[in-house]
Design a protein that fits this description.
heterodimer, A: about 425 residues, alpha/beta, 10-stranded mixed sheet, 8 helices, B: about 250 residues, Rossmann fold, 4-stranded antiparallel sheet, 10 helices, globular
């Protein structure tokens, strides 16, 4: 279908300010391919069905909207975790702040440094993203594959002793960062990837993850309190037989966040869980868009998204489970819930199931509600002050999502952040 | 301990008067029972005293230890020493029973300017008290009242009472939904808490609970007022003849 003139113009206006970074032939080819995909799709506009609840304007505009820096005394999350840390400041790799990129069972290189004509990432860079463009187009991801200036390429061959932590800092009010990471877990390998920080005034990030047979990937991310930032992120994952993929995101504030997660279960007995806990206050818009495709037998997928919204904040959830013909014994579960702490906040949900196999168990549910007054009174009648009682109930509401984090230490770290946020709301 | 004078209460959203000038004095260290037919306003009295929304006090006062509690927030009443054992204890998914208990104990201590209980001390105390009420470790770990049987819920109420050590305890139909054994266990828990400095107001439909928790004074409530007051024998009279005779007598 031919693009409308408006869409063509908007896309070309954005492209005018960008140029394809140099690199080895395979990467240039991948970038040119992505650019061609993008030109064929055009950047998202307000009329697009997939952007019905989220305005893409500021995410696609040629100019980045200025975002004030956020000063805080609070130490960064995961600071106490024994980790391999990789730091990006406004999308630029910071070697001095990063750890040595070597470790047992893991190979890490920077996208910007890749020169070799033969590289394992050749089979994945932009490839998983391309797979994820069907049946729904994700133009911002194509833009990312074409123009990402940096990122990390991580290949895991064994069990890595400590998590890899990508830490992002936002230090310029007008930074416009595009990062693209590729992670490949070889058969039986295991990795925990942590991500934290606000990254830039505007951030476009793609994470492609190949989880081979029997490999295990854990992903825990926090999107911080840097209020004026805007972010569009994509995860594209492909899962082999008996593999495990678990991703959890904690989002606190941010005027505009769109997190897309596209997972393909291609090997039998694979497990994919995606969870998100988000807390929005005021001028806040958060969108979780998830698409899980079951294309193998006896796989399990779970989507658990919880949003606490107040003072006019908006939460969006678009989640789909697609069960292809032959994907028998699929176990799919999807829940999206919002806790609206006042009448001004809103939650927009679009849960979808599309099933072409006849022996599957899929369920989905979506709710919006206020705080449970009966439970609140019960707590207060025991002497717990109203604001503290409300916080307890908010935490209880988010627990199902937070409990998706397997590692107890990391889960406590996230709970600590969440409690800190709630306390600050009380002033 | 508690002096209720001419208490008048209506529903907030409806033009319906529930309590119509109720007078009641519970002395320190005494156990008073309130009996009465359905719809007499017994549960409303317990909710109004503990500060639940939805009721409007149109007159009168409720003085606990010299202070009118009707002006206080529910948490302030609790910190001042009031405790309501709910007829229907509330399930709170996602909040662990231990977290709940500890938060409540420490919130009250904080409100009273006392030092908070350390986690080791708290664990020690709660385990001992739970054991007396036959509450096992699993019940302490589970979310508040979620998946608890009727008896477990009521025992959990008494455990909270034991942990919070209130001065004035209101038991709202604590016997409802309990079999005889469960009722005995709950009554034993209550009796263990009876002391010189602690008063009880036991609200019940039936006399059977009062076989196990012997009251000092029994009141009969009807149509939003206390209509008759007497000793434990009054409860036996109700058991034998029902409410009709008494109500006819006072009418």
């Amino acid at each position: 279908m031919a693009l409308t003139q408006t869409k063509l113009d908007a896309t070309e206006a954005r492209l005018a300010g960008l140029c394809l970074p140099a690199g080895p032939a395979w990467l240039t080819e991948a970038r040119e391919g992505a650019l061609a995909r993008l030109r064929a799709m055009g950047l998202p506009g307000r009329g697009d069905e997939y952007w019905k609840y989220t305005r893409p304007d500021t995410l696609v505009a040629p100019e980045v909207t200025k975002a004030a820096l956020f000063e805080t005394e609070e130490a960064c999350v995961f600071g106490e975790v024994d980790r391999l840390q990789i730091v990006f400041v406004d999308g630029v790799f910071d070697a001095a702040a990063s750890d040595d990129l070597t470790g047992e069972g893991i190979e890490i290189s920077r996208l910007a440094d890749v020169a070799a004509d033969i590289h394992w990432a050749k089979d994945l860079y932009g490839v998983l993203e391309t797979n994820g463009q069907d049946p729904v187009e994700r133009p911002l991801a194509a833009l990312n594959s074409a123009f990402a200036t940096d990122g990390v390429l991580i290949r895991v061959t064994g069990t890595v002793s400590k998590p890899v932590n990508l830490t992002y800092f936002h230090r310029s009010e007008t930074s416009d960062a595009i990062l693209h990471h590729v992670v490949k877990l070889e058969e039986g390998a295991e990795l925990t990837l942590l991500e934290n920080g606000p990254a830039a005034a505007r951030f476009n990030k793609v994470l492609e993850v190949e989880v081979a047979d029997k490999a295990r990937f854990h992903h825990i991310r926090t999107q911080g309190r840097d209020h004026e930032r805007r972010a569009a992120t994509h995860i594209f994952a492909r899962l082999g037989a008996e593999s495990l993929f678990k991703s959890f995101t904690l989002t606190a504030n941010g005027v505009m966040t769109r997190n897309e997660c596209v997972i393909e279960l291609t090997g039998d007995d694979a497990v994919a869980h995606v969870a998100g806990a988000c807390m929005g206050d005021g001028d806040f818009h958060h969108d979780d868009t998830v698409f899980i495709t079951h294309d193998a037998v006896n796989c399990e997928s779970r989507q658990v998204f919880k949003k606490v919204l107040r003072n006019g904040a908006t939460g969006v959830f678009q989640g789909k489970i697609l069960v292809k013909e032959g994907a028998q014994k699929t176990d799919g579960y999807q829940i999206s819930q919002s806790l609206l702490l006042d009448d001004d906040s809103q939650f927009l949900a679009k849960p979808e199931l599309e099933i072409y196999a006849d022996d599957v168990a899929c369920s989905h549910g979506s709710t919006s509600g206020a705080i449970d007054e009966t439970a609140l009174f019960y707590l207060r009648s025991r002497g717990v002050p109203e604001d503290q009682a409300t916080d307890l109930l908010v935490q209880a509401f988010l627990a199902e999502a937070v409990d998706e984090i397997e590692d107890e230490g990391l889960r406590d770290e996230i709970v600590g952040r969440l409690q800190g946020w709630l306390q600050r709301r009380r002033g | 301990m508690l002096e209720i004078k001419n208490l008048q209460v209506k529903l907030e959203d409806e033009d319906k008067q529930i309590l119509k000038g109720l007078n009641l004095t519970v002395e320190t260290g005494k156990v008073h029972a309130i009996m009465g037919p359905n719809g007499s306003g017994k549960s409303t009295l317990s909710y109004v005293l503990s500060g639940k929304d939805g009721y409007e006090v149109t007159g009168g006062e409720a003085i606990m230890d010299g202070e009118d509690i009707l002006d206080m927030e529910p948490e302030e009443r609790a910190a001042a020493g009031l405790f309501l054992a709910f007829q229907y204890p509330v399930e709170i998914p996602g909040v662990g029973n231990m977290t709940f208990l500890r938060t409540a104990v420490n919130a009250q201590r904080k409100a009273r300017g006392e030092e908070e209980m350390s986690s080791t001390e708290f664990l020690k105390v709660v385990r001992a008290k739970a054991k007396d009420l036959k509450i096992d470790a699993d019940m302490l770990k589970r979310p508040v009242n979620v998946g608890f049987s009727g008896g477990e819920k009521k025992r959990n109420e008494i455990l909270q009472m034991a942990m919070l050590e209130p001065k004035m305890c209101i038991l709202d139909e604590t016997d409802s939904g309990l079999d005889v054994d469960a009722m005995k266990l709950v009554a034993e828990g209550v009796n263990a808490l009876r002391s010189e400095g602690r008063s009880f107001l036991v609200i019940t439909h039936y006399q059977r609970l009062l076989d196990h928790i012997t009251p000092d004074v029994v009141h009969i409530m009807a149509d939003g007022r206390i209509v008759k007051t007497g000793g434990p024998e009054l409860a036996l009279e109700v058991e034998k003849n029902g409410y009709a005779d008494i109500l006819a007598e006072v009418a």
